[in-house]
Amino acid sequence: MNDLHFDTICAHTGTYNSASTDGIFDVTTPLHFASTFKYNPTGELPTGFNYSRHDNPTRSLLEEHLAQLEGGAAAAAFSSGSAAAYAMFTSLNPGDHVITNEDVYIGVRHMLTDILTPWGLKVTFTDLTNIENVKNAITPSTKLIWTETPTNPQMRIVDIATIVSLAHSHNIKVAVDNTFATPVLQQPLRLGADWVMHSTTKFLGGHSDLIGGALIAATKDQWWEKIKHIQHIAGAVQSPFDCWLIMRGIRSLVPRVERHVKNAHAVAEFLHNHRKVEKTLYPGLSTHPGFEIAKKQMKDFGAIVSFQVKGGKQAAVDVVKRARVFTCATSLGGTESLIEHRQSAEGPNSQTPDNLIRLSIGLEHADDLIKDLTQALS
Ligand SMILES: *Cc1c(COP(=O)(O)O)cnc(C)c1O
Known about the structure:
The chain contains 14 helices and 12 strands. By secondary structure, it is α/β, with parallel strands linked by helices. The strands form 2 sheets. The protein has a 7-stranded mixed beta sheet with strand order 1-7-6-5-4-2-3, with helices on both faces. Helix 2 (about 55-70) packs parallel to helix 9 (about 240-250). The model has no long low-confidence stretch (mean pLDDT about 95). Pyridoxal-5'-phosphate binds near residues 108, 152 and 177.
């Protein structure tokens, strides 16, 4: 059946419906830990597998599911979101130009400035919420626009369809880091993007117990072949066990995201009305500059809420210190709510305002989260 709802497809991820070699029908997929697989002396691979860096049955199953979730043609799973991004950028050539968000995830910023710029990549960081900035940044060697939306951690909303139509008119490809939105809320390939990237560490894994990443291609073209080649040859592949855990995470993705988002709305409303909060950065608030675009391209607004407190850096750090239900830790997308003073987490090259706190809203009762923030802000 291929007319199933997205929820059903998620719930069935990594469930098994053909007999394994020993005739046993597992309801959930067996885990293939093997690094190497028996093949014919003449070189043919009877099962299609020969070595787990190239392909592994558990990883291949995850990749099939990831492609399906994003409406893509194929996917490649990497050992981290950063490794996925690195594969994307190194699939370009020295001298090629990339345009990305000025507040792109700090790890990707460092990758671009510290490793890939010396390697020969040209990079422009700009505010992609203003299409004029993109027009001005395009050069004859621009090959890729890499955008987050919502952005991490400033929660800016980039209009995917508008960026895609400008990019494609210049023969430029668009990759969307869909980590914050998840495919439950936003499917960039359906809006015309060429690539989707995920840090599967976050909502897809969903339980703060693995590091992973993926690239999903709209089409199986030459660029896809290059990504697959980099995955095989550079070798930053996802371990079978982590692939298995991600599939387990995806099975509950829809109800988790629904609850994450419901809680996030409640927390954002609370912060928005709090006298000690200068600004709440959540695209689900009608006062957010990206609200209309978010409404157009997302099913809902996600579970990351950033806010700026009155009183500057010290006041923000003090709020984090007082939190009890929220844990002070980086990352996001787990069942437990996290809080951090983002500039301290990002370090010296941070573009983040010094009074900004980023929350990852978990699956707790919303009242407990609001009570904790009430005392932390008082
Ligand atoms: C976490 C994150 C990354 C990096 O992923 P890792 O799995 O930590 O390497 C990239 N982009 C966004 C938006 C992220 O939140």
